[in-house]
Design brief:
Structural class: mainly alpha
Number of helices: 3
Distance between the termini: 31 Å
C-alpha cells in the first residue's frame, strides 16, 4: 500500500506557503514507521482480540500478506525518496 504524502507546516509570517511537500520529512516518517502500523504492533493488536478458529486463520493469512507488502513498499518508497532528496527542487 503506498504511503500518504507527508506535509510540513511552514509559517506564513516567514513568507512560506501554508503547506509544502518535504521529501526529507517523508523519508524520516518512513524510517520511523509512522504511516502504517508496524507489523509487530499489528500482530499485537490481533493477539489482544478474541477470534474463532476460522477468523484467526484468515487474519493470519492477511497479516502474512501485510508483512510481505509492508517490507516491499517500505523499500520501494525509500528508494524513490532517497533519489528525490538528491534532486534540485523546481523554482517557482
Amino acid at each position: 500500500m503506498p504511503s500518504i504524502p507527508v506535509f510540513r507546516v511552514t509559517s506564513i509570517k516567514n513568507g512560506g506557503s501554508m503547506y509544502h511537500y518535504d521529501v526529507n520529512a517523508a523519508l524520516e516518517e518512513l524510517r520511523e514507521d509512522a504511516l502504517l502500523p508496524h507489523p509487530v504492533r499489528l500482530r499485537d493488536m490481533i493477539l489482544r482480540t478474541k477470534h474463532d478458529a476460522e477468523e484467526a486463520r484468515e487474519l493470519n493469512r492477511e497479516f502474512q500478506n501485510y508483512l510481505t507488502h509492508f517490507g516491499e513498499t517500505q523499500k520501494l518508497a525509500q528508494s524513490i525518496l532517497e533519489q528525490l532528496a538528491l534532486d534540485q527542487p523546481k523554482t517557482p
